[in-house]
Amino acid sequence: AGYKSDAFPGAACIGEGMDAARFFDPLRRPAAPLVARAARAGLSADSLTLACFAAGLCAVLAIGRGWILPGAGLLLLSRILDGLDGELARATKATHWGAFLDLVLSFILVMVLPFSFALAMPDRALAALFLTLAIACQAVGSLAFAQVATRAGHPPSRIGVLDKLAIHAALLLACLLPSGFSIISYMFGIVCCIAL
After folding, report:
1. Considering Cα of 186, then 134, then 57, then 53, what sign does the dihedral take?
2. What would the 3-class secondary structure string for the chain be?
3. CA–CA distance, 171 with 194 (Å, rounded to integer)
4. Which of 4, 46, 110, 137 could share a disulfide with 99, CB 3.0–4.6 Å?
């Protein structure tokens, strides 16, 4: 989650964007008691990160088998856990390892999710491949910028136009409108390339 980024230079640039942070702001207050209870129970942010990744992989398997709506529910659950792990990190102790784990698993998940649609709809595999490549280009561009900005001694201020929230929103839309997956993939992929 983006809120762990304080422990890892450049993470804010390549994790959650400013828009995503603003999106989660109204959810912090109702989530606070749950986060506090998890912290008292000794639950670590890394365990929530792993649970988020597991839910995402289950979503991939469900969508790949054609269970689109259950897959959408699992994807939404993964998204909620992704927000909670960052809040728990802020409430306990944010670490470099936690930020690294969160970023790596998030990138793996957003790369694999389009593949699940290709499994469910082989005739739209080309659109899924295009979306995957576009997301990869966006991720590489953000990583490169973060590295250069950090070496130059400037806090990375470039927030990718398309953060994880936007990517997951596009994929959730594809779950609700599977017949429009190709159009959604090409349009979102083009925006990813332009955002570089």
Report:
1. negative
2. CHHHHHHCCCHHHHCCCHHHHHHHHHHHHHHHHHHHHHHHCCCCHHHHHHHHHHHHHHHHHHHHCCCHHHHHHHHHHHHHHHHHHHHHHHHCCCCHHHHHHHHHHHHHHHHHHHHHHHHHCHHHHHHHHHHHHHHHHHHHHHHHHHHHHHHCCCCCCCCCCCCHHHHHHHHHHHHHCHHHHHHHHHHHHHHHHHHC
3. 19
4. 4
Given the structure tokens 């008292």, which residue do they identify? Answer: 40
Which range, 11-20, 148-157, 179-188, has the best average confidence (pLDDT)? 179-188
pTM over 0.70: yes
Indicate the residue type of 146: A
pLDDT digits (tens, 9 = 90+) for 23-42: 455 555 666 677 677 777 77
The count of other CB atoms within 10 Å of the CB of residue 177 is 12
